[in-house]
Amino acid sequence: MVVRLRLSRFGCKNKPFYRVMAADSRSPRDGKHLEVLGYYNPLPGQDGGKRMGLNFDRVKYWLSVGAQPSDPVKNILFRAGMLPPPPMTALGRKGGPRDTRPVDPMTGRILNTQNSAKHGSKDSEETEDETTTE
Predict the structure, then answer these.
(1) Dihedral, CA atoms, 21, 27, 28, 29, nearest 10 degrees?
(2) For the chain, what is the total number of helices (H) and then of strands (E)?
(3) Which residues pair with 41 in a beta bridge?
(4) How does residue 97 score in pLDDT terms, banded at 50, 70 and 90?
(5) Is the pLDDT of residue 107 over 80?
(6) Residue 53 to residue 36: CA distance in whole angstroms
(7) Beta bridge partner(s), residue 5
(8) Could you tell me which of 71, 103, 76, 98 has the C-alpha nearest to residue 87?
(9) According to the UniProt record, where is the region Disordered (predicted)?
(10) SS3 call for 37
(11) pTM of this prediction?
């Protein structure tokens, strides 16, 4: 039995409210679940922020026994500080192939790789050569 951490939808039409649940991967979205782990309200509250609440101990337990979080739950756990940031890729151009260089999830900037570090050291050597020839 593969256990997934996923969202189950509650609330009215145009007013969604989600519960974070541990459920068997074969059960439907709003069907049978093993345990309720928290909630997520995507609508802004009085302070203008989205609200969420998680039982951190139980989430850590389910992750330790091999439960796989769905993509929305991964983002919620990342915002709560329980998971590392999800890998992001940059778009080279619209509709074109994706650039596989890693992107910083907080700033959206492309991270420096070892190749660019090597190029950076060559640039510094070239500038040293130019200063010695003058």
Answers:
(1) 10
(2) 3, 7
(3) 51
(4) low
(5) no
(6) 11
(7) 22, 69
(8) 103
(9) 87-134
(10) strand
(11) 0.59
